Each structure stands twice: as structure tokens, then as C-alpha cells.
Amino acid sequence: MEMAPWIRILLLLACLWFPASVECMVRHYKFNVVLKNTTRMCSTKPIVTVNGRYPGPTLVAREDDTILVKVVNHVKYNLSIHWHGIR
Ligand SMILES: *[C@@H]1O[C@H](CO)[C@@H](O)[C@H](O)[C@H]1NC(C)=O
Ligand SMILES: *[C@@H]1O[C@H](CO)[C@@H](O)[C@H](O)[C@H]1NC(C)=O
């Protein structure tokens, strides 16, 4: 989903108003959830991956950054996404 223009403006102003956090930024990621055949112990089976990788990609951000993740589910069943390492 695209971010509403007023939110972009709000974020921009927030960055301008607080010079100490002038580094804050919006980081965009796109997750394509796809099946990928993986061979382990001589047997091949499809696993759910993000952008062809399992575990999924690492998101890098600094304090006060905003992260927008667009998730596109290309597999035929519903799923949930969760995160590790959030403080
Ligand atoms: C995985 O392998 C099966 C059997 O060879 C094949 O039919 C299927 O299209 C493959 N799937 C992917 C995602 O490559
Ligand atoms: C996925 O979830 C939606 C919303 O809860 C539901 O309507 C749909 O039937 C689910 N699809 C499958 C394949 O479970």
C-alpha cells in the first residue's frame, strides 16, 4: 500500500524539526513470498521463502527510522510474517 502524501510531509517535517534526528529516514523493503525448491539430505521439497531466501532478509535501520515493508504473498495459502531481533 502506498503511503499517503500527508504522512510523507509529516515525516519530513519531523526530520526538519528535530535536527538531532536529522538522520531519520523511511526505509522501504519489498518481500515477495514465494515457494522455492530446496534439497536437503537428498530430498527436494518446496519451502516458503522471502525473495527466494530462508530465513528472510535482514532489515537494517537506525533508531527513529520508519520501515515500510510491502509483502506480496505469491503462495496459495495464508501466512504470517514475524521478526527476530527487534528491541
Ligand atoms: C519444484 O519442483 C517440482 C518438481 O520438479 C516442480 O514441479 C515445481 O515447479 C518446482 N517448484 C519451484 C518453485 O521451482
Ligand atoms: C485467507 O484469509 C482470508 C481472510 O481471513 C480468508 O478469507 C481466506 O479464505 C483465507 N484463504 C485460505 C486459502 O485459507
TrEMBL record:
Keywords assigned: Signal
A Pfam entry, by short name: Cu-oxidase_3
Record-given protein name: IRREGULAR XYLEM 12, ARABIDOPSIS LACCASE-LIKE MULTICOPPER OXIDASE 4, LACCASE 4
Range of residues in the leader sequence: 1-24
Organism: Hibiscus trionum
Coiled coil: none
SUPFAM superfamilies given in the database record: Cupredoxins (SSF49503)
Keyword Isomerase: no
Plastocyanin-like domain boundaries: 36-87
Family: Belongs to the multicopper oxidase family.
GO molecular function: copper ion binding; oxidoreductase activity
